[in-house]
């Protein structure tokens, strides 16, 4: 039986099923909202592009199936998407039928709760993007990922980044209880960045010149109507990369890499005054998410985890 909080969460996501594609994947591209969903999907797709196209992939918390369609567009053919919101899954099936008339949506999408998925197959890759904040028991979920992965399989799990609280200069910073440990962790997690400290200068140089070239006042709208998400009814947890390492260890999984995203040029309070420019700079800063600098300026991360 569903507990009360879970059914409240499902109600929330059911009611967002028709608008998710517009709000999260903002088609007008005017950057009034930071395009987190596109960027994190892009991180996953660029990792997948290094793999063979016959990999079996499961996307948990697939919503209306955007990442699944991006995987199909990238040439992967064995993909499955699961979500516990029946309305999200109906929307995923509806869009797939329209965009991929030769595929049977019932073979691809199904309704299930993340920690209760029962399948008689294992996967080379599991993705869980924008999901773990909503699962009831993170340990149970990570052990489910372990069960569903093949030996040497890879999981990409996305999370809000607790280390960003050091930089954000807001109520999250005021509420930090373990500041010395958080600061220490900034050095400990350097080894998980795909681009290591000794190559950071090249990335910084290139990124800064991209920012300089990419900004122009004429690109900015004078009349910005900010889109906003309906507020989720519960508090959303954050993790540090090392907390993730520990969660993985408990489930016999190994953290390999961390890519940070939603890089902030300044603390968020200043962005309110120039949101479109702020978001545009943040998008251009994404290469820094692959370096250790991302740990403090990126408000979220995608971790690459291996079952070995
Ligand atoms: C923030 S959306 C992310 C959707 C998608 N991964 C994306 O990035 O576009 C979260 C999704 O997770 C689903 N979800 C939340 N809790 C879940 C759970 N316990 N099991 C399965 N899906 C869940 C919601 O229904 C929603 O579609």
Please characterize this protein's 3D structure.
With 308 residues, the chain is an alpha/beta fold. It has one domain: Rossmann fold, CATH 3.40.50. It has 15 helices and seven strands. Strands 3-2-1-4-5-7-6 form a seven-stranded mixed sheet. β4, α7 and β5 (149-160) form a beta-alpha-beta unit. It is globular, with a radius of gyration of 19 Å. It starts with a helix and ends with a strand. S-adenosylmethionine binds next to α1 and α4.
Itemize the secondary structure elements and their pairings.
Layout: H1 4-15, H2 20-24, H3 36-48, E1 57-60, H4 66-73, E2 79-83, H5 86-99, H6 105-108, E3 109-111, E4 123-128, H7 138-148, E5 149-160, H8 165-168, H9 171-174, H10 179-188, H11 200-214, H12 241-250, E6 254-263, H13 268-271, H14 275-284, H15 294-297, E7 298-306
Parallel strand pairs: 1-2, 1-4, 2-3, 4-5
Antiparallel strand pairs: 5-7, 6-7
The protein binds S-adenosylmethionine.
Can you give keywords for this protein?
308 residues, alpha/beta, Rossmann fold, seven-stranded mixed beta sheet, 15 helices, 16% strand, binds S-adenosylmethionine
């Amino acid at each position: 039986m569903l507990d009360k909080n879970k059914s409240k969460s499902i109600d929330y996501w059911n009611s967002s099923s028709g608008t998710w594609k517009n709000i999260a994947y903002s088609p007008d591209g005017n950057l009034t909202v930071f395009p987190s969903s596109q960027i994190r999907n892009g991180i996953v797709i660029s990792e997948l592009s290094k793999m063979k196209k016959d990999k079996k992939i499961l996307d948990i918390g697939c919503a209306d199936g955007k990442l699944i369609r991006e995987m199909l567009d990238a040439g992967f053919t064995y993909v499955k998407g699961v979500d516990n919101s029946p309305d999200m899954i109906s929307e995923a099936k509806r869009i797939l039928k329209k965009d991929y008339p030769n595929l049977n949506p019932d073979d691809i999408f199904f309704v299930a709760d993340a920690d209760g998925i029962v399948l008689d197959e294992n996967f080379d890759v599991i993705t869980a993007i924008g999901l773990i904040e909503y699962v009831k028991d993170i340990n149970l979920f990570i052990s489910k990922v372990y069960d569903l992965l093949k030996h040497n399989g890879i999981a990409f799990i996305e999370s809000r980044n607790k280390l960003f609280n050091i930089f954000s200069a807001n109520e999250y910073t005021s509420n930090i209880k373990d500041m010395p440990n958080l600061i220490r962790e900034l050095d400990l997690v350097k080894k998980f960045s795909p681009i290591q400290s000794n190559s950071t200068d090249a990335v910084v140089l290139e990124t800064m010149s991209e920012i300089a070239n990419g900004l122009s006042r004429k690109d900015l709208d004078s009349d910005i109507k900010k889109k906003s998400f309906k507020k989720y009814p519960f508090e959303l947890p954050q993790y540090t990369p090392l907390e993730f390492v520990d969660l993985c260890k408990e489930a016999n999984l190994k953290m390999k890499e961390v890519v940070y995203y939603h890089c902030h040029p300044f603390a968020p309070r200043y962005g309110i005054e120039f949101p479109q420019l702020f978001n545009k700079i943040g998008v251009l800063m994404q290469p820094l998410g692959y370096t250790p600098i991302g740990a403090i300026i990126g408000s979220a991360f995608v971790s690459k985890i291996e079952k070995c």
